[in-house]
Amino acid sequence: MPTIHERIREEVLRKERALWTAITSADPPPQIKKLSNPEVVLLFPKMPILTLEDEEQFDECLKAPFHRFDGFQLDDVRTIIIDLMAASITYKVYAVRGDQEYRATGSTTWSQAADGEWRIVTHHETLL
């Protein structure tokens, strides 16, 4: 049976993949909002800092073709357990759309909400 830390690592990685599936989808804002803590802060390259305080800006900045890729891959994934209800995951991301490539490092901090679901607290990407 996996330890509690192993289960947290698996769940946070599953949620991070769900985040990237949302980010690369045709309509990212609703899916990203669903994954987010109400006080989420998102830091994407060459964009303003995004929060849910300004939903109009949030929706406008994340609408397609924002990060619209055909596929993505997470490498060098590391998950740090902060406590039983918080974790941070770091990785390198490689994504493609046709002949366009996107390479960056990423980091997301997740916290477990009262309903037991893991939610994004902060997300950050840095271009390589």
From TrEMBL:
Classification via SUPFAM superfamilies: NTF2-like
Protein name per its UniProtKB record: DUF4440 domain-containing protein
Superkingdom in the source lineage: Eukaryota
Source species: Penicillium frequentans
Domain DUF4440: from-to ranges: 13-120
Alphabetized Pfam families for the sequence: DUF4440 (PF14534)
Transmembrane segments: none
Gene3D superfamilies xrefs: 3.10.450.50
